[in-house]
Amino acid sequence: MAEEHVSHLIDAYALGALEPDEVDTVERHLATCAECRAEAERAKTVVAHLLYIAPPATPSPDLRVRTLARIRALANADANDSQRQHDAAVGADADDPANDDAAQASVAVHPLTRTLRSLIASLPGGETVEPVEATLRTLLSEPDCVIWPLNGTDDGPGASARLVGSRRRRRAVLLTSGLRRLTPNQAYQVWFLHGGKPQPNALFSVDRAGRGASIVRASAPLAGFETVAVTPEPAGGSPGPTGPIVLVGALSQ
Amino acid sequence: MYIVCRRGGATLTGQDSSDTDLVTSVADGDTDALGHLYDRYHRAIYGLCLRVTRDAAAAEEVTQEVFVRLWRSASSFEEERGRVSTWLLRIAHNLALNEVRRRQSRPVIAFDTDWRTEGERIVDSYQAHDPAVATELGERAQAIHAALTQLPELQRKAIELAFFGGLSQAEVAAALGDPLGTVKSRIRVGMQRLRELLLAAGIDEVS
Question: For residues A67 and B190, what is the distance between their CA atoms, to the nearest angstrom?
Fold first, then answer.
């Protein structure tokens, strides 16, 4: 290799302090010279250490909320893209005005459209749905919204559920599927467990497909509970669980 | 630790997860994991952006943009190429310099750094506000400060202006009123000496 080494430029190159023509010279040489490439890597490591010496500082308290809200909007846009790709893959008619209207309407309604749509799709029929849907919209707009899964136990084979809420709030929505229908004098009851002790909460029933939806309001923010569970109880509910747990999920560990 | 369902399905994330695990979760679409990384590193990132832009509003904008980049590029992070903190700070440094150039701000010619006490103040600040990363970030910063303090002031100043000011060697020379050749020499000798000092202090090669 007749070309001269560029050692004399490497440190300034790593610091980003070269002029554009010098950068070209260095990068052309690095493409062909392993020795100088290794030297450049070492210099970049020194420069990387300099990243740590600025004094830390505290931005406005709302920067976290603003940043996460923007990320959630991006997450939703990604999800919508995936949904569109999915629709295209399964042959949904992109020219169908109904599809278009539905997509546009839901985008306008909420930035977390896909999540909301999929949750609404899991709602049972009946008059309880409308307030549940409104509550879901509100909860999903929270920057710290979490969706906790609940799993069916041996006494609730095939059942599953999601609890939509946030750790700092009391209110949440429980959406279930795959639960067996109960007799008219029974209802499912939600329990929040703190220190292993169950606190009684909302009652709900399920439709023929085993789908149920219930707005729950815990006695404290959900961060204060470790577990949520569901049992079948007498129709008016019970102060303590009497039926077997059919669904259970961890709220924190 | 709790479970969230997002873009790619259920993912486990928690405040105690490693940086790399959190980045993996972010790549899977876990916004809570991104929140944990924000909590760990936003003050370091904002501090760096503030040092470069010298403007609180611009520094906040850039800090937010760093996390947007993290969201979009998490899947491209390669653990073997370095730490998550270095990766994030490097993104922040590049974006902050771009912002300064975009605004065509006047080049900075001096930073109000008291090199004798700055390292300790940084450690104290991390310990007070960011105990989870105080060891990694604070002690690292203190050790690097200690090495920088041993450089002759003119070498340190040239490196500092190039790095935080985003100035070329010619701009550093113009800002300080020194000949270009002198500035080039200071930067080269200063960087080589700094590397020796960091190695002697046992600061690892892997960034």
Answer: 38
Closest residue in A to B159 (Cα) is: A15
User: Quick check: A67 contacting B, CB < 8 Å?
Assistant: yes
Residue B69 is predicted with a pLDDT of 92
Pick among A39, A44, A53 to test the B interface (most B CBs inside 10 A): A53
As a whole-number percent, the residues of chain A with pLDDT over 70 amount to 77
Residue of B1, B169, B186, B198 for testing the chain A interface, max A β-carbons within 10 Å: B169
CA distance readout (Å), A247 to A145, A176, B39 = 21, 9, 33
Which tokens in the block code for residue A72?
């959630």
Q: Smallest Cα–Cα separation from A155: which of A241, A226, A213, A232?
A: A232
Residue A224: DSSP 8-state:
G
Q: Distance (Å, rounded) from C-alpha A160 to C-alpha A140? A: 20
Q: What is the amino acid identity at position A107?
A: V
How far does Cα B168 stand from its chain's mean position? 19
How far B200 CA lies from chain A's nearest CA (Å)? 13
Asked if B162 and A17 touch (Cβ cutoff 8 Å), the reply is: yes
The confidence score (pLDDT) of residue B3 equals 35
ipTM summary value: 0.88
Residue B87 contacts A where some CB pair is shorter than 8 Å: no
CB spacing of A68 vs B7 below 8 angstroms:
no
In sequence order, which residues have a C-beta less than 8 Å from that of residue B21 and are 6 or more positions away?
A: B13, B33
Of the pLDDT bands very low, low, confident and very high (cuts 50, 70, 90), residue B8 is very low
Stronger pLDDT, A121 or A166, i.e. the higher one: A166
Number of alpha carbons in the 13 Å side-chain half-sphere of residue B63: 36
Q: Which long-range contacts (CB under 8 A, 24 or more apart) does A42-45 make?
A: A42/B195, A42/B205, A43/A10, A43/A11, A43/A13, A43/A14, A43/A15, A43/B191, A43/B195, A44/A14, A44/B207, A45/B205, A45/B206, A45/B207
Which tokens sit at A92? 């949904």
Whether residue A144 lies within 8 A of chain B, CB to CB, comes out as: yes
Q: Which two tokens stand for residue A115?
A: 């999540």
B190: closest chain A residue by CA: A11
CB pairs under 8 A between A and B: 175
Query: pLDDT: is B100 or A99 the higher one?
Result: B100
